[in-house]
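Protocol step 4 of 5: obtain the predicted structure for the target chain.
Materials: sequence only (see below). No template structures provided, no constraints applied. The aim of this step is simply to have a reference model before the mutagenesis design in step 5. Sequence pasted as it appears in the construct record:
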Amino acid sequence: MQDLKRKITNKELELPDALAKALPLLRGLVSDEKLLWLASELQGYPNGLEFFQSKGNEAALKEFPNYRIVTGKIWLLTPQGTLAELNNPMTNRDRVFLSAPVSWLEEALKDPNDTCIVDMAELTNYFAKGVGNVVCECPKEHLRGILSIFRQRFIQVLDEASQSN
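Step 4 output (structure tokens):
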């Protein structure tokens, strides 16, 4: 586990690969809650739609990691590659929960622009299936922040598991 921690710290191993290697090793060493969190980071948060349906209900929002809530704009990405306005109350908000798998976030950072586009599959499936993809456009610094916080917390979990082993 120390080798895995070193590779994550030095960015020698991409986060999705590290997660896939770590999850089986962590079973029985950390809480099920932490395993579920790590699995959600790897595969995406299955309950992401609930964030948009919560209408600011603070109790409902507590189940979402704060570090994944960003300032961004939600768009419809048409099949032609253009961004179109969405006129839906669920998408007219300043704060957006990015439920995408960590691999999608890393991929979005490769965009050469100052902003990046992250696919929001939960919203696409909910009201835009067949007409395009719902995406969030946000500054790259937000994605870097998400990945940095996640990396630090992931390393803490590995440390915890090493100490209990």
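Step 4 remarks: The chain has a mean pLDDT of 91. The chain has eight helices and six strands.
Proceed to step 5.
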